[in-house]
Design a protein that fits this description.
The complex is a heterodimer of chains A (293) and B (234). Chain A has 293 residues and is mostly helical. Chain A is 69% helix and 3% strand. Chain A has a domain of 197 residues. Chain A contains 10 helices and 2 strands. In chain A, strand 1 and strand 2 form a beta hairpin. In chain B, helix 7 links the parallel strand 7 and strand 8. Classes of the chains: A mainly alpha (293), B alpha/beta (234). Chain A: InterPro entries: ABC_transp_permease (IPR001851), BCAA_transport_permease (IPR052157).
Amino acid sequence: MQGFLDIFDIYLLEAVVNGILLGGVLALLALGLNLIFGVIDVTWICYAELVMIGMYGMYYMVQVFGLPYWVAAPIAIMLVAALGALLHYIVIEPLLTAPPINQLLATGGVLFILQSFATVAFGIDFRNLGIRLPVLAIGDMHFSYSRLLAFVAALLGMLAVYFFMTRTYTGTAIRAISQDRQIMSLMGVDTRRIYLITSALGGALAGLAACLLVLQYDVHPFVGLSFGPITFLICVLGGLGNFVGGFLAAFVFAQIISLGGLFSDLEWGYVLAFAFFIVMMFIRPAGLLARRS
Amino acid sequence: MLELKSLDAGYGTFQALFGINLDVKAGEAVGVIGPNGAGKTTLMRVISGLIRPVRGSITMEGHDVLATPAHRIVDLGIAHVPENRRLFPRLTVDDNLKMGAYMPGARAKYAERLEFVFDLFPRMKERRSQMAGTMSGGEQQMCAIGRALMSDPKLLLLDEPSAGLAPVVVQQVFELVKRIRASGLTVLIVEQNVQQVLKVVDRAYLLEAGSIRASGTSEEMMKTDTIKQAYLGV
């Protein structure tokens, strides 16, 4: 298996640039999770497993059915978006007024269901698209095109979300709903519909991440564990529900992982990132950009 | 235009309104006065669908309000400016006004409505890119009224528009209510500031402990002994 972080070379600049590239995808994942949390006030513990399903979708469409990558990608995004909406409709909506711990346990249950489903349906073999993108060499530094593509596409995806959130009525309602849930009906907003749209959007972001990650990593039923936990740490560090905070925290974490991996073994990057998180939780328990209330 | 018949409402086991009969005719300004905790805010919330009554009926121009989903009531032409304004504090003035025009019918008239609101509140035009939560109380009240007007309503529900504002600003708010009336809107206003509100409304109801105790034209209400003693301090 090609690990999550085993592409770093000995050069510092290369590590920094790779850290930035990694930050893009992490920021995309964090945005999806923050969106769900900020608007619906629930945490999808199984978020990374939606990404895993999306990666399998890409694998089957490209490797088994022979669709070109560019055709398969939008289908995978729509598939995971539908899965997000379904998750909300079946699991979250009945639990909207339940205690948060019950919501957490329920989405935790979905995590195990999805992992086990993937194990039974797809097997535990590591799969990949069989697409090898070339490597860009600048001097002695090497950057894989799959990472560059992931970074650019993640930024474009986030930009699209930004325009949707600021330019459209639905997007404005999504931003408003977390500020005053009760009076939304006075504006003529059907909160159930907004929740469903937000869940689909969160799913679509997971789907986009899946299309990008599947170019870099093999798919297996537990691949979600490689980036699920780190996504949660990013969201908490940035301040749960805070989009800008999550964006910044993603790049901070990516840099720590990238540089930590440069100076030592790759796994130490993760150790450093998690240690940094624990220390930060003592210094700023509510996150980097905590709102003063 | 708006008609409430023998309405009972409350929260859980607590009953706040008892057998309310109330009507508002097109073009009128009607006040509901009464002490704290009389059920005035509950009355407003029942009309706009934020809470559902236990018994009774509400009709708006012949439409059954209680058979309408809460988020569709604004489409019947009822706009509610809630107690404490309830703006979206971390949205700009522009975005707050945009939320007021959320319904498809209002979206189509967005530019026209925005001009109307900016005409009424030139201050809002200056503040349009400011976060609503950072404005003064009076400005926030303007923004809240403006947001309600964006839906192009026929009936405007105002819940305590003068609450928490400096005396000078209170004067301005009541001036605004007069101007809103003059633009042809029907207004139902709930107020504790009895002296002020009776100057701008045609008729008023006195609500005490969840029941309507008296009603009449503003002049009649001003002459009623109980109101004089309890609310006007003369």
